[in-house]
Design a protein that fits this description.
Elements: H1 10-23, H2 27-54, H3 67-76
Length: 77
């Protein structure tokens, strides 16, 4: 692990201390869990944005084969 320093408000520090005591976990553990959740949440949003951007990107291409005809040919076999 890499040591990182952060600044917390008095309120954040007090709430974190209370949660730490109530849950029986170290404050650093709670912070790592919160960062993991944020990364997971933002990663999903970022993936969804990329997929939305990519949707329909080939719709105006004229140099592609007729995929419906190809698929129909494959389905007959």
């Amino acid at each position: 692990m890499i040591r990182t320093q952060i600044y917390l408000t008095d309120h954040q520090r007090a709430e974190l201390a209370a949660l730490s005591k109530a849950l029986g976990k170290k404050q650093s553990e709670l912070i790592r869990e919160a960062v993991d959740r944020l990364i997971e949440q933002m990663g999903s949003s970022r993936r969804e944005a990329v997929l939305r951007e990519a949707a329909g990107m080939w719709k105006d291409r004229t140099d592609l084969p007729d995929f419906r005809a190809l698929r129909a040919e494959w389905d007959r076999k």
